[in-house]
Write a structure and sequence with these properties.
The protein is of the alpha/beta class. It folds into two domains: 159 residues, D-Maltodextrin-Binding Protein, domain 2 (3-Layer(aba) Sandwich), CATH 3.40.190; 110 residues, D-Maltodextrin-Binding Protein, domain 2. The chain has eleven helices and ten strands. The strands form two sheets. The chain has a five-stranded mixed beta sheet, sandwiched between helices. Strand 6, helix 6 and strand 7 form a beta-alpha-beta unit. The longest helix is centred in the first third of the chain and has 23 residues.
C-alpha cells in the first residue's frame, strides 16, 4: 500500500510537470505555416551569420514542418536586405537575420529597427583583443601604457568602419582613457594578416574563426569582453575587461526578427520552435566548434526587444563620440 501511494504521488507529479511544460509552450497557430518560409541573411554565403541561420533552420526544420529557404541578400551594410524584408507581408513567412548593424544603420538614418519585431536572440559571441606572438605587448596593461605615452599611435584593426568591431574598440579606448587609431579592412582575413605581419598592433576578433592561430600561439589573446573568463584551456589565463575595471561585456550577437505587425501567436510559436532547435545535436556541434556556447545567448521576443533598445543607446553614445552623428 505504501509503495502504491508513492507510485501514485510520483505519477501525479510527473503529470503536473508535463502539464506545466505544455502550458508554457506557445500553441501552434491555426493554418501556419502552410508554405515555404524564407530566411533572409544580409551577408554572404559561408560567413558566420549565414552558417548560424542555416544550421538553426536545419535543426528546427522538422518542428517547423515546412521548407525554410535561406536567401543571401548583400549590399548597403544590410539596408538592402532590411528593405526587402519590410516589403514582404507581416505574416511570418519572411524571417530576418538581425544583427548589430541594424541598430547602427538606424543611428545613421539608413533604416529604422523599430519596424521589425524581435523573434529571438540565439548567439552571443566573444570579443577579444589579440597581438601576434612576437609583439612587445605581453599584457593589455602594456598596450594601455604605450597608448597613453604615445597618443594616437596605437593601431587596432577590425572589419569595416561603423561596425560592431569599431564600437567595441572605441568603447574600450574611451574607458581606458587612451587615444588609438582604428584601421578597418573590408574582410576579416585581411585584419588577421595585418597583425600577423606586424603592420597593425592589435586585432579585434571573435575566437571561433581564428582558433588555429590561437592554439598554435601565432596570436595571443590579451583581454576578453565577457562577464567571466572563458572556460577553455587558453581562455583561463585571459583577463576580462570587467575584472580590470572596465565594465564592457559587448560582443557580436546573432538573432532573428520578423516584420512588425506579425501576429504575436506566430512570433511566440516560432521562438519556441527555434529554441528547441538550439538543443539539436547537429546545431550544437556547429556552435560548439565555433565556441558559441561559452556564454548564454538565448533571449525570447520580449527580452530581445529590450536588449535592442539597450544596445542602441550604447552604440549611439560611442558613434556620437566618434563624430559620426550629431548629438541630440
Amino acid at each position: 500500500m505504501h509503495r502504491r501511494s508513492i507510485f501514485l504521488i510520483s505519477l501525479v507529479s510527473i503529470m503536473i510537470m508535463a502539464l506545466a511544460a505544455a502550458a508554457t509552450a506557445a500553441e501552434k497557430p491555426k493554418d501556419y505555416p502552410k508554405r515555404t518560409i524564407e530566411a533572409v541573411v544580409q551577408y554572404g554565403a559561408g560567413g558566420g551569420s549565414d552558417i548560424f541561420v542555416r544550421s538553426l533552420m536545419n535543426a528546427a526544420a522538422k518542428d517547423i514542418g515546412v521548407t525554410v529557404n535561406v536567401t543571401n541578400l548583400t549590399g548597403g551594410a544590410g539596408v538592402k536586405a532590411s528593405t526587402y524584408v519590410l516589403s514582404q507581408p507581416a505574416d511570418g513567412y519572411t524571417i530576418y537575420n538581425f544583427s548589430p548593424e541594424q541598430l547602427i544603420n538606424t543611428i545613421m538614418g539608413r533604416e529604422d529597427y523599430k519596424q521589425f519585431a524581435p523573434l529571438c536572440n540565439v548567439q552571443m559571441d566573444e570579443s577579444i583583443f589579440y597581438v601576434r606572438a612576437e609583439s612587445k605587448f605581453k599584457t593589455i596593461q602594456d598596450v594601455i601604457k604605450y597608448a597613453k605615452e604615445n597618443p594616437g599611435k596605437l593601431q587596432i584593426t577590425g572589419t569595416t568602419p561603423l561596425s560592431p568591431d569599431e564600437i567595441i574598440i572605441m568603447l574600450f579606448a574611451k574607458a581606458a582613457g587612451i587615444k588609438i587609431k582604428y584601421i578597418p579592412f573590408d574582410k576579416a582575413p585581411e585584419t588577421h594578416a595585418a597583425v600577423l605581419g606586424g603592420h597593425i598592433d592589435v586585432l579585434h576578433e571573435e575566437p571561433g574563426v581564428i582558433m588555429p592561430l590561437i592554439e598554435s600561439g601565432k596570436l595571443r589573446p590579451l583581454i576578453v569582453f565577457t562577464e567571466e573568463r572563458l572556460p577553455v584551456g587558453w581562455g583561463k589565463d585571459v583577463p576580462t575587461a570587467k575584472e580590470l575595471g572596465y565594465d564592457i561585456t559587448l560582443g557580436r550577437w546573432r538573432g532573428l526578427a520578423v516584420k512588425k505587425g506579425t501576429p504575436p501567436e506566430i512570433i511566440n510559436w516560432l521562438a519556441d520552435v527555434l529554441k528547441k532547435g538550439t538543443s539539436a545535436p547537429a546545431y550544437k556541434e556547429i556552435a560548439e566548434k565555433s565556441l558559441l556556447t561559452l556564454r548564454p545567448g538565448w533571449m525570447g521576443p520580449e527580452e530581445y526587444g529590450k536588449f535592442w533598445d539597450q544596445q542602441y543607446k550604447v552604440y549611439k553614445e560611442i558613434l556620437d563620440d566618434l563624430g559620426y552623428t550629431k548629438k541630440k
